[in-house]
Amino acid sequence: MKRVALALVLGVAMFATTGCAALWSWPVSSAGPGFLYVNQTLPSEDTTSTVYKFERKDFDILGPVSAEAETSSILGWVATGDGGYNKLLTQAKAQFNADDVINVRIDTSYSNILGIISTAKTKLYGTAIRFKK
């Protein structure tokens, strides 16, 4: 009986402290870290206080660009996907041969089925630009 109780306590502790079920790991932009394997890139917001002042003469606006990305997690143990800014930049380079993307907006929808399978679908939008040489 003690072994069953110990196994139950350890099981609950493992799910409460790792993966998607962890009490502190609920960023909406992530399907959650994996316990056994992690391979995901997450979008994030810029919280620095650095301000760049670009003038219109510094770059050419090429047009709007968008990309979709997805991360997923199974039982909070295995997490995969690419939900980062690089997806948007890669699309801008492919579509416009752009140098960068400005005015980036991120929308993320998160789904979780009983903590077994969770996914985060991220839509990234921005404006592709090319710097003048």
Helix and strand topology:
Elements: H1 2-17, E1 37-41, E2 59-74, E3 78-82, H2 85-96, E4 100-113, E5 117-131
Parallel strand pairs: 1-3
Antiparallel strand pairs: 2-3, 2-5, 4-5
Main attributes?
single chain, 133 residues, alpha+beta, 5-stranded mixed β-sheet, 2 helices, 5 strands
* Poorly predicted runs of 5 or more residues: 20-26
Number of helices: 2
What coarse outline follows from CA principal-axis ratios?
elongated
Head-to-tail CA distance between termini: 74 Å
Structural class: alpha+beta
Helix-strand topology string: HEEEHEE
Oligomer: single chain
Please state the CA-atom Rg, rounded to the nearest Å.
Answer: 20 Å
Q: Tell me how many strands there are.
A: 5
Sheet with the most strands, sense and barrel status = 5 strands, mixed
The number of domains: 1
Question: Mean of the pLDDT scores?
Answer: 76
Helix content: 10-25%
Strand order of the largest sheet: 1-3-2-5-4
